[in-house]
């Protein structure tokens, strides 16, 4: 990756657009990919937007589970038993898009909690949403973010906690979105009010994100060498491109959502940020699976990385990338390591995302090459 200059120049625009990244900063295709299948869910339910992690040496997934016609979600934990991914519902976690981090040796899990109204029996309308955090072991809620904000992520910085936020507004039909960053002394100091304060402070903005009518956010954060953070995120916009079944046919009534996964590096002390790359877009995945709705056909929603090591030794050659596909499926692809700096393989917060190369590939069922 190239480092984003402190002052924009002719080569690098002031804000990176989806089109700019797609045209010049694409990592490539993902031929070693598969769609995962799950057992233990209802016949009308689907699993997507996963969060991978390693527990007791085994690969696990948190998955968003909901009916095909609903957004009332709950989270299941999936483990592989003899080649079958079987579920265990986490009854305390009725959220969308689960994520996991490790702070002060505690697993912190979260997701997007929704408020619904029911104007008619069986008809539910989303009234509000927020990002909520829980202690994975005790199941106790720790934090509720401010109303109307997704993609809040925390990262353990040792003597303080890093906080990424994602404010998004829409005025006169124009979407404005950014990624913001600051720190808090401890988890106990992180409140909805603090997150709001970070989100409206122009000095807390991470440079380069986003153009008008584009949005995105942080999905997962990892510790790299030399104090840098490796950030997995997404960039999105609406595209009038016709239906999934007939993309060449003009159909301007349907606003297609285009989401791609991006990766970049960020320094929490200096706020330097490297140029992001698109690591995966829908066109990279060789699959004809059907999306939840036609307008979601082009959605890749990042879940997380599993970093691979060989015979217990650090390796930064390849990662397993888990993602939601069309808001209906879980995909996994073997991709080149996406960061310029190496992973800090000894950092405690990274340990739940590292697994032996051969075992990880065998668990998923992907070939080594």
Could you describe the 3D structure shown?
Helices cover 7% and strands 46% of the residues. It has 369 residues and is mainly beta. Strands 1, 16, 17, 18, 19, 20, 21, 22 and 23 form a nine-stranded mixed β-sheet that branches.
Question: What topology does this entry show?
Answer:
Elements: H1 18-24, E1 33-35, E2 38-39, E3 45-55, E4 58-67, E5 74-81, E6 84-89, E7 96-103, E8 106-120, E9 123-135, E10 141-144, E11 153-156, E12 161-165, E13 168-171, E14 174-177, E15 180-184, H2 192-200, E16 214-223, E17 229-239, E18 256-266, E19 277-280, E20 298-309, E21 318-325, E22 329-336, E23 354-356, H3 357-364
Radius of gyration: 19 Å
The total beta strand count reads 23
- What is the architecture at the second tier of CATH? 5 Propeller
Structural class: mainly beta
**What fold name goes in the CATH topology slot?**
Tachylectin-2, Chain A
User: Could you estimate the helical fraction of the residues in percent?
Assistant: under 10%
As residue ranges, the low-confidence spans are 1-10, 242-253
Number of helices: 3
Coarse shape = globular
- Largest sheet, described in full? 9 strands, mixed
Number of self-contained structural domains: 1
The helix-strand sequence is HEEEEEEEEEEEEEEEHEEEEEEEEH
What is the mean predicted local confidence, pLDDT? Answer: 89
